[in-house]
Amino acid sequence: MTTPTRKSVTVPMLQVMKSAGEKIVMVTAYDSTFARIVDDAGVDAILVGDSVATVMQGHTNTIPVTLTEMAYHTALVRRAQPKALVVGDLPFGSYQVGAGQGIESSIVLMKAGAQCVKLEGGTTVATTIEAITRSDIPVMGHIGLTPQSVHRMGGHKVQGRQDGVEPGGRQRLLDDAHAVEQAGAFAIVLEGIPTELAQEITSKISIPTIGIGAGSFCDGQVLVMHDILGLSERELTFTKKYIDMKSLATSAFQEFAQDVRNGSWPDDKHSFH
Ligand code: KIV
Question: Which residues belong to the active site?
């Protein structure tokens, strides 16, 4: 447990952390119970990620999750009253139409309890990022392996291995990072790109980079909660299972079933008279 006096993390604090060379830690959470646990663990930011579509809703990608569902999960996380910065993730279809739609969707997540929003894309969404930030809603960018572009990428594939200015090309990712920074984003997630490219981006832009599958040179790191806890079906090279909670949970449920079946649950201590 962290001390109850821990200061609330704010958007400007992440920039200060980059300048001081302090690593930023972000973890996803989708409900109050786990938001409280990750906050007590002392993370700097909680991402209410659209990964909720895969790790909680059972979809194979993040495309189906709706803005209403993202607002619901954001509200659950906010109810934990975390000290960590709450990042609301704009889902597919909630900003692709244009800047106006992006502002309106961001307002929905902010009213649900987000303190900033995250959206995927680089040069093509720069005007949307600019418009949202001009509405005083801080924006976190996200480039590289952007799961909402799964069909364009032909799967969840590492990006930036080939040179070029086409989407996913090395030069394009450098351009994307600059575009997101210039548009006014306060931080940027770099996902699924070579370590060397992430290092170059991190040294060339002034805003903090938060990596997942982008090597160790980023200003911070993010992981999906279910991957850390071993609750995820997916075994990706760039995630790490810190605990096998799936096995622990299965054992607990098996033990309960056994107790019920052999009549040892409930015992007298857990019964009323
Ligand atoms: O939705 C999510 O969990 C994300 C992280 C993988 C960065 O976008």
Answer: 191
